[in-house]
């Protein structure tokens, strides 16, 4: 597992600079794949990762993007299928091919191998890959010309969240855990840890991060993205180390973390990922310090609208703080507990990351 992850990170790192430029630059010319006969004949489709479309996170955001695009285009109603496990990926993709989909959106790093196989077998179809570059041979380029990657340098926004978390922590211990040890999960944890390190350097403090060792690239993981007792126990083990800010990374696992926080009977702030969880799941709103945002819905909508208008563009898009592809959600119920000077510092750090004065390390930054 560690060898595979290192290979993935190495391959993805090679494309970091080029992808960032593609994400910030002017839209390249279309590659001409399946221009289509018009929006009324256009059929957008989507395959979820195992979290499902009601995960209040990246699967749900992707679906919202596809639905919004279909509504704007006046296209056929999207066909959207949920995967219960990794064994469903290939068959779900084939079912969409068989139903004559124009563009197929796949959600998540784990779907990339099946997406690539399907794309190569159907070169006249269009594919959009959320959260993965589909570079299975690690040569620095997407492995099929009919796949558009939509990826996010979430380490930048997570850096801000880590600084914020260290600043509000009263115990001097913050924590994080993930679903699976893969780059699209650990990029959050890396950024979060770097933000804590920056806070300590700026303030002469020694706030600790529990659950992730950035040097070893290893930490606490549940083994999946389900909200279950394993996720609750993982969160509890971290909370038991005197943590008072907790970042769960992996779709619905935040729900199990919320249960563990409520069971703890003391003030522990929750940090959401992907969506503004305060808005998508008000049941945990009072716990949320902020959420680390990924513009999955916007990026997906833009890609599908372009494809539906015959302007499919396979160039990778990467979300950054500069292009608002990633960011921090409002502090909502925590607003009056975050000192004004801390908010000002977080805003200043955002500006420094955008200007290049601060470089946040990630596999997408090179």
Automatic annotation (TrEMBL):
What SUPFAM superfamilies does its record include?
Periplasmic binding protein-like I (SSF53822)
What is the first-listed, main subcellular location in coarse terms? Answer: membrane
Establish whether keyword Membrane is in the entry. Answer: yes
Q: What keywords is this UniProt entry annotated with?
A: Cell membrane, Lipoprotein, Membrane, Signal
Give the coiled coil ranges. none
Q: Where is the ABC transporter substrate-binding protein PnrA-like domain?
A: 46-361
Gene3D superfamilies registered for this protein in UniProt = 3.40.50.2300
**Which InterPro entries does the entry link to?**
BMP_lipoprotein (IPR050957), Peripla_BP_I (IPR028082), PnrA-like (IPR003760)
Describe the family membership recorded for this protein in Swiss-Prot or TrEMBL: Belongs to the BMP lipoprotein family.
Q: Do you know which PANTHER family this protein is assigned to? A: ABC TRANSPORTER GUANOSINE-BINDING PROTEIN NUPN, TRANSCRIPTIONAL ACTIVATOR PROTEIN MED
Stated name of the protein = BMP family ABC transporter substrate-binding protein
């Amino acid at each position: 597992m560690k060898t595979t992850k290192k290979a993935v990170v190495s391959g993805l790192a090679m494309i970091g600079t080029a992808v960032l430029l593609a994400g910030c630059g002017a839209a390249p010319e279309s590659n001409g794949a399946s221009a289509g006969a018009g929006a009324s004949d256009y059929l957008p489709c989507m395959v979820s990762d195992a979290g499902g479309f009601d995960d209040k996170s990246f699967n749900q955001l992707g679906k919202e993007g596809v639905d919004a695009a279909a509504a704007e285009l006046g296209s056929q109603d999207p066909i959207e299928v949920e995967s219960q496990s990794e064994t469903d990926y290939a068959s779900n993709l084939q079912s969409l091919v068989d139903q004559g989909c124009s563009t197929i959106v796949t959600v998540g790093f784990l779907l990339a191998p099946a997406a690539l196989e399907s794309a190569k077998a159907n070169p006249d179809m269009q594919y959009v890959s959320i959260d993965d570059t589909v570079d299975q041979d690690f040569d620095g380029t997407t492995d099929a010309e009919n796949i558009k990657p939509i990826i996010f340098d979430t380490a930048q926004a997570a850096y801000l969240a880590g600084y914020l978390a260290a600043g509000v922590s009263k115990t001097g211990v913050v924590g994080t855990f993930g679903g699976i040890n893969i780059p699209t999960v650990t990029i959050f944890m890396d950024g979060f840890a770097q933000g804590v390190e920056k806070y300590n350097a700026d303030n002469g403090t020694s706030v600790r991060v529990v659950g992730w060792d950035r040097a070893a690239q290893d930490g606490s993981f549940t083994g999946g993205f389900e909200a279950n007792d394993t996720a609750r126990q993982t969160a509890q083990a971290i909370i038991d180390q005197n943590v008072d800010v907790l970042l769960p990374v992996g779709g619905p696992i935040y729900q199990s973390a919320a249960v563990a926080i409520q069971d703890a009977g003391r003030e522990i702030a929750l940090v959401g990922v992907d969506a503004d969880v305060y808005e998508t799941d008000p049941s945990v709103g009072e716990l949320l310090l902020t959420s680390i945002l990924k513009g999955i819905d916007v990026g997906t909508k833009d890609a599908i609208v372009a494809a539906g208008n015959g302007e499919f563009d396979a160039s990778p898009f990467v979300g950054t703080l500069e292009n608002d592809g990633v960011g921090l959600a409002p502090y909502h119920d925590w607003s009056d507990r975050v000192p004004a000077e801390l908010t000002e510092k977080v805003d200043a750090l955002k500006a420094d990351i955008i200007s290049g004065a601060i470089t946040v390390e990630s596999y997408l930054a090179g």
